[in-house]
Amino acid sequence: MVFINALVAGLLLGPGVLGASISARTAVSKNNVNPSLGAIVGEYVPKNVRRQVAAHSTLKPIKLSQLDSFLNGRAAKRDTDSAPAGFVLTDKEKLVYGLAGDANSLVMANVTLLSTNGKPLINMESFESSTKNVVCGETMTLEFISKEAFDSAVAEWGWVNEDETHEFIMIANHESCSPADQRTPYLVLNADYDEDTFTATLDATRAEWKDIANTFDLDFGKVKLPATAISRRAAAAHYDDTVSIDLTQTVRNPVIFSTTAGASGFDLTVSCLDCGTKGTLDVSGHIAVKGFSVEELSVEASPDNFEARLQIGVKVNGRAPNAAFSAQLLSVGLGGIDIPGIFTLGPTLDYDVGFSATLEGTAEISYGVRATISNDAVLKADLINPSNTQFTNWSPIIQQIPFQLNAVAKASITAFAQPTVALTFDVIGLPAFEAALKLKLPEVKADLSALANNGGVCGNSAKTAGVQVNASIGVDITFSVGADAATNPGTIFEKQLFVSPI
Ligand SMILES: *[C@@H]1O[C@H](CO)[C@@H](O)[C@H](O)[C@H]1NC(C)=O
Ligand SMILES: *[C@@H]1O[C@H](CO)[C@@H](O)[C@H](O)[C@H]1NC(C)=O
């Protein structure tokens, strides 16, 4: 708990603050109070929650021959010399996907796929420069540029004709075989060759990733690119593998709760003067799947200039004995990444506020707290063995946004903002997982009482009215792992990362 007992100079009431002085408005006449009313407690259903679904960015295949140029700023190698190596059937294929993050970074996902059920793999990209023409239809026809290339294919792929059970997986990324900028797997059952035209005709049928990819590793994150080829060495020093998720969301001025005397015996309006979040979250992760079962799923998340704000405005007229509500102001999809058929990372940000108060008087109050988290905060979450999850430096730094008020007889207010950042992982063939960081941040409790003293308050004889404020601020940061709420609700694991009760 951060306890603040203050007679803050900024709280001195004058005509400049919200337009009226305390002496002009004192306690409400008792006639306005309905003593039988009791508390309003409950869930407020807000009228205009901002809901937004963001489209995912689809990562595009990066050929291994291009990767070097991306990462090192060098011209792509001509890889006509890749034959015959490019034709070899393998039991491990590395598939690299990426997308420009910003001017000098690449959002990247590396999939290392292992062959399953004795079906070896080959990526068409590795021998593509040796082909003249590729046609996918009833069969897959590959016309090679040279006898050397053709002979290499015959030599390496002959295995498929040796036995009926011999089959291999061809991963194709060619306009005739696959949707644009995607890789599509084909199951190859047999091969025919035409020596005169250097053409191989494969008996190949399109397969689904979920049927052939049952054992793989996937790493995702952001890779910084060198500004120039010369900066290569320097750039290599700050390769950091993360995907940034922009958390900047602002809600200004909506009334989040209101009730009028007719219904309750008092007027109460609560608005979010400035609520929201700022900053980014850098995320990287590793997933290992073996035989359709997730063996490892770890995520590293680190905030960058993260801030959560809560500045509320309260207008009261009457005696509100125990008003309480909570509301969701935002539920926003933040735009994740996906590899069609293989992997989706979908981040969302929810922003909830809660408020409870006992108020008496006729007053307008505004108060707020800003909380920031150090850029050194790191969460290393292990979603398979969540108790191994590590977190460091999540203790927030709290800064108060000064009180403003025109009058108050007595008020005891507790309010909190609760941004929740959730990451949903959808990995082929597996139920979706969700990792969520729930930040009850900031939570503030303030007891206010008006002071009036003809001799001056706060050591200033010119001021005749002031407000005494005792405020305490609490924080509660909780990490949870659950099955995706939409498909299979339930929390698997929950742990408080940081708690400082109010
Ligand atoms: C993907 O692989 C490339 C090349 O090996 C490497 O430079 C990069 O850091 C990897 N990216 C991720 C996110 O693991
Ligand atoms: C603030 O705390 C002091 C000391 O505990 C107490 O005397 C005072 O009444 C409190 N003020 C309010 C407004 O609750």
Molecular structure report:
- Strand 22 and strand 23 (390-392) form a beta hairpin.
- The strands form 2 sheets. The protein has a 22-stranded mixed sheet that branches.
- It is built from 6 helices and 28 strands.
- It has 502 residues and is mainly beta.
- Helices cover 8% and strands 55% of the residues.
- The model is unreliable at 1-45, 229-241 and 453-457 (pLDDT under 50).
- It binds 2-acetamido-2-deoxy-beta-D-glucopyranose (2 copies).
- One 2-acetamido-2-deoxy-beta-D-glucopyranose binds next to helix 1, strand 7 and strand 14.
- Residues 117-217 form the DUF7029 domain.
- InterPro entries: DUF7029, DUF7223.
- Pfam families: DUF7029, DUF7223.
- Residues 1-19 form the signal peptide.
- Residues 246-495 form the DUF7223 domain.
Notable traits:
single chain; 502 residues; mainly beta; 22-stranded mixed beta sheet; 28 strands; 55% strand; elongated; binds 2-acetamido-2-deoxy-beta-D-glucopyranose
Number of helices: 6
Radius of gyration: 31 Å
Give a quick account of the main beta sheet: strands, pairing sense, barrel closure.
Answer: 22 strands, mixed
Roughly what fraction of the amino acids lie in strands? over 45%
Keywords: Signal
InterPro entries: DUF7029, DUF7223
